[in-house]
Amino acid sequence: MIDRLAQHLDAAAMEIRTVPQLTIDQPDLSLDDAYAIQRAVVDCRIERGATRMGMKMGLTSLAKMAQVGVHEPIYGYLTSDMMLADGGTMVRTSYGHPRAEPEIAFLIGRDLQGTMTEAEALDAVIGVMPAIEVIDSRFSDFKFKLEDVVADNASSCRFVIGASATPLAELESRDLSLGNLGMILEVDGEVVQTGSSAAILEHPARSLTTLLKMLAERGEGLHPGDIVLAGAATPAVHLQPGQHVRVRVDGLGSAEMFVD
Q1: Can you give the pTM of this predicted structure?
Q2: I need a labelling partner for 248 at 20 to 30 A (CA). Which of 51, 197, 200, 204 fits?
């Protein structure tokens, strides 16, 4: 079942089409099943030549978790075929219903695994970057249950990170707190969303330690060079051809992309 459903979702992504929720035909699909499907979906990409680049967190808003009745976020994988260069162009017709979110990204400097404090996790962070994540569900009308979205690699699609990573010590030297950085999402030069890094599980470092705990439950961890998208600071914005999208984060600079 796991491989069959993974190939089903992978084919939907490759053929740019949407499919009904998995839980309609598989009402007993468990969260463990969903993460197994997710890993198999990522393996399909790796078999085509993509490489693992890190992880992304989803449902990092406490209000969103309460809304969908869960007590912790979800995660997905980042692969090289998802990465878009800063200032690069994404072809809108290659996706079903893509939406952009402003995020903060961590660059990991050494192996991390297991439960640890926020300070211990941040000690392994080389730097922090502004990021844009583009999400795009494989499910019709962007509607799904928790198990569906986990199986679908947490709606991962594309991501952009800023050109340089800012060390945490540099933020502190400028009296800037990682836990409360102002974040702005612009489309065609107009501000469409504003928020703070505090919206990401109340502090992005908490998102990082939560990810490590969840990965450890499945015998996994983070590795040197991994990128971790900590989660969205604002609601997502629908993307249309011809748009220029930019996120600006206090102390970190900006990241941008174009939609063709």
Answers
A1: 0.95
A2: 51
